[in-house]
Design goal:
Layout: H1 5-20, H2 25-37, E1 41-42, H3 43-50, H4 54-66, E2 70-73, E3 82-85, H5 89-117, H6 126-151, H7 154-171, H8 176-185
Antiparallel strand pairs: 1-3, 2-3
Amino acid sequence: MELTDIGRRFIVHWGEMGSNWGVNRSVAQIHALLYAHGQPLHAEEIADTLSLARSNVSNSLKELLNWRLIRVTHLLGDRRDYYETSGDVWELFRTIVRERKEREFDPTVALLRELSADPRLAAEPPAMQDRLRSTLDFMQTLGSWSDEMLRLTPATLEKILRLGAQVQRFVRPGDSSEHAVTAAVFPATPPIPPMG
């Protein structure tokens, strides 16, 4: 498959962003190719298109399968495995958040709970105890919120995010647009003329 300039730039950039997020560049590029192409591809097509070694493609596909970002499919009359990803960016977002939460966030919460329950914590300086417990409280609150958000359908989640962007204008202090919104909602009353 020959990539267009737009396709190539998207895939290269997605690979660079993947590296910034701690994801192998090849893994991110393969996912970007499958997402942008929108059709199942077999490993040889992926390797040829991205000029990657077959072993690199194989390992990267395993990683994407472990992250549940791609799935294996088959075509009638073809014995090869084909790979595809969801075309729904909201579904991909939810999958990434869910997987990162399970791999990175939840183990940290588990450790903080264990440390908070350890009787030896009482021997630590009070400031450390407070920070550890406040971090646990914050992470549990954030975890509960994210669990609730992940239960929503993509359409509902998108509505909530859009609504949140509108609501923040009312609660962000010191914003000049806040004054405009407040004035529109609560117009100033005209001054009362002096009694004479």
